[in-house]
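Hi V.,

You were right to ask for the full record rather than a summary. Here it is.
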Amino acid sequence: MHAARNFYSALAVFVLILHALFILWVAFGAFLTRSRPVLRCLHIGSLQWGILTELLPWWCPLTLLENWFEGKAGVEPYQGGFLLHYLDKLVYPDISPTALTVAGVIVCLLNLAFYGRQMWVARFR
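Predicted structure:
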C-alpha cells in the first residue's frame, strides 16, 4: 500500500513539473520559435488554449491528472486551477484570482501580438 502511494505521489510530482513547464512554454515559447514554423504553430495553439482555459470554465487535463494522482496517493487534491493554487501562493499571496487570470491572458495576448507583428513585417518584405 505504501509503495502504491509513493508511486502515485511521484506521478503527481511529475505532472506538476510537466504542468509548470507547459506554463513556461506558454509564457516564453516565442523565444524558442524563431525560424521553426512547427514550434510556432504549436506555441500559437498553446497560447489559444491558455486563454480559453483562463477565461472559460474549462478544466485543464493536467490539473485533473495531478489531482487524481494526489487522491490516489492519499493527499487531499487542491481545489481550483494550477496557477491559483501554486503561483498565487508563492509569488503573489495577496492578488485576487481575477487579477491573476487577467495577467495570464495579457501574457498570452502579448505573445500573439508578437506573432502578429512578425507576420505583418514578413508580409511587406
